[in-house]
Queue: 2 jobs
Job 1
Amino acid sequence: MGVSKIIIIGAPRSGTNMLRDILTSFDDIATWPCDEINYIWRHGNILYPSDEIPAMLAKPEIIDFINNSFLDISKRYNSNIIVEKTCANSLRLPFVDAVLPDAKYIFIHRDGIDTTGSAKKRWTAKPDIRYIFAKVRFVPLTDIPYYGVRYLWGRVYQFFSREKRLAFWGPVLKDMSVILQSHNLNEVCALQWQHCVEKSEEAFSKIPSDRVIRISYEDFVLKPKQNLSNIMQFIGKDVMPEEIAIAVKDVFPQSIGKGRKALSEQEVKNLESLVGKTLKRYDYL
């Protein structure tokens, strides 16, 4: 049997980790033993200036490399369903689809103000050595020097930064350096969210609807059993209701609005003005 590839698409802090962990709690569903594999997705295009890699750069050798990575995980965990979640894929869906033309997509979106309040904490977080070593195992050997220098620069920048932020975090947008110079950290996080969901929507309009399921973070945490049942049906895995209940037993809605509460009223108003068009698209404004 072939390997079913399930790609979770969502902006940072939108519930993508939660969804991946729930799905991989089932037998025969596996993923990489680290948070994201952007190193694998960018192999062969490591010097491309943003994560918005175009489909034309999905060269045959890159397609083979990424597909073999999925096959390796399938063999390692003896699983026929492989779930992958890398938030930067939101920016390059045509590229992803050129690499994995048989993949199915789960698109999860969340209130962009909530994600901003959460994401800004990651921009200013201290190093997590265990997290770093979990991911570095999947960096292609030829790419290690590049990422080593990049990581050190990011931490040096954080030390001297007035906002104590990293030089980069999360999906890299086009003209990211200009955006970082002309916007404060709240606005950068909001723009990352906006570009991720808008780019995803643009790409999904050209992908057959039977390969995509859409959910909102808010609806999922309010009705986890119903939503997870729909997702399992979508990916073609039969599970019992009691298995669904166990998988979502730790899902609660208390994080709805948490990111907003981390921001002042004026900060929220400023962000609503900046990305209001996209907020309205998803009924968050």
Job 2
Amino acid sequence: MPAGAKAAPTTAPTSRPAEVFKDKDGKPYPPLEQLAQRTGDPKAGVKIFRGDNAGCFRCHQVGEEGGMIGPPLTAIGDKLTKPQLLESIFYPSAAIEMSYENWIVRTKDGDVQTGIKAEDTEDHVTLKDTLGQYHDIPTDQIVSKRQDPKSIMPEGLGQAMTQKELVDLIEYLSTLKNK
């Protein structure tokens, strides 16, 4: 999920329909502006954040806990509104925070590595994949290197939760602020 410096969305967050997605029970989501108006339970949202369905905790850090693959979310409630948080979940590629862009590197032997560029020097490129593993690729072995317009955050995470779970998650994320 994007945090901090991010590209401006090409449309207003509430102009994108969530109803093209269904929750894990197969129920269509209402429009984002309606979903953003719902009030959830932040304590239940913590459980969703840390749980396996959404998987947020594997990639995002809050405080000193969580993964360090996507942007830290410790103060995301100061940076994004509820509609913007929803936009980030339903459309993660709409605005990708700088330095969390996905890169695709193809080598001479036909191997393809993808991940966040951790290092780019004269003699190698290091990518960090979605599992947090680092891959060093010697520059003299690289055939092509390009930024992928798609986020490493998977599309459709709303489909891994019920609507109540998503609303609880958004409520929790909106409480994460600088103290």
